[in-house]
């Protein structure tokens, strides 16, 4: 009798632990009906133990992928070993709202889960225990760190004034693209351009207006390029756009569209309209067997040809 009392005391102690721990505990029989439902589950699901006991698990949680979950449980029961899921692979098993004030940035509770085999006196697995761990704080911190890293990456590769790629990142992308074309035998065109008489704009209207003009030109570039194009601020008032899989004729069409769009812009200075234009030069990777430096030099030479011919025009590198 003393042994039975001791065992009964142990059982009560275990039940108290199960009810008080901050982990979801659900025990299912082999027909997937609920046999244990602790306080964590009651609070997160809104269902009392009396409402959950004996109910089919998949009726209580229709969001669970039944075929997938059954495979998991059958593997546990057959092998007699636990299995796990982590939030990185499956954000949650049971769709609970996130009520933690510290991690209130997330709409739902991220979860890790463990499925344990429970053997009866006969040694046969006749129950499985599902443990639900709330890892929303871990997921939130990871997401915030990833977002911060993405922002740092963006800042390290972006020109602060224009939001286009900065020169360092743009040149690295150019080297990568040129290397790719060298392997594949494809080709691309490079468009380099700058703002005409930009020093005059700065001297006449001030550097803030000059910055506004640069930003406006960058906006036009963003509206004109394709998703695959690589656009950057090369320095000062000079810009560059790499056009993958584009021949000189296609690059000329792009450049003229860009030039006309910029010519139609204006910014305001003390009620006065400030107009501006750009001059452009184009080269092709087919003309630059020595690589990106030669490609830039050729496009730059074509740009200065546009300058020499009166500005607000596009020139192709002709050798």
UniProtKB/TrEMBL annotation:
<dbReference type="InterPro" id="IPR043128">
    <property type="entry name" value="Rev_trsase/Diguanyl_cyclase"/>
</dbReference>
<dbReference type="Pfam" id="PF08448">
    <property type="entry name" value="PAS_4"/>
</dbReference>
<keyword id="KW-0418">Kinase</keyword>
<dbReference type="InterPro" id="IPR013656">
    <property type="entry name" value="PAS_4"/>
</dbReference>
<dbReference type="GO" id="GO:0043709">
    <property type="term" value="P:cell adhesion involved in single-species biofilm formation"/>
</dbReference>
<keyword id="KW-0808">Transferase</keyword>
<protein>
    <recommendedName>
        <fullName>diguanylate cyclase</fullName>
        <ecNumber>2.7.7.65</ecNumber>
    </recommendedName>
</protein>
<dbReference type="InterPro" id="IPR029787">
    <property type="entry name" value="Nucleotide_cyclase"/>
</dbReference>
<dbReference type="InterPro" id="IPR035965">
    <property type="entry name" value="PAS-like_dom_sf"/>
</dbReference>
<dbReference type="InterPro" id="IPR050469">
    <property type="entry name" value="Diguanylate_Cyclase"/>
</dbReference>
<dbReference type="GO" id="GO:1902201">
    <property type="term" value="P:negative regulation of bacterial-type flagellum-dependent cell motility"/>
</dbReference>
<dbReference type="InterPro" id="IPR000160">
    <property type="entry name" value="GGDEF_dom"/>
</dbReference>
<dbReference type="GO" id="GO:0052621">
    <property type="term" value="F:diguanylate cyclase activity"/>
</dbReference>
<dbReference type="GO" id="GO:0005886">
    <property type="term" value="C:plasma membrane"/>
</dbReference>
<dbReference type="Pfam" id="PF00990">
    <property type="entry name" value="GGDEF"/>
</dbReference>
<dbReference type="GO" id="GO:0016301">
    <property type="term" value="F:kinase activity"/>
</dbReference>
<dbReference type="InterPro" id="IPR000014">
    <property type="entry name" value="PAS"/>
</dbReference>
<feature type="domain" description="GGDEF">
    <location>
        <begin position="186"/>
        <end position="319"/>
    </location>
</feature>
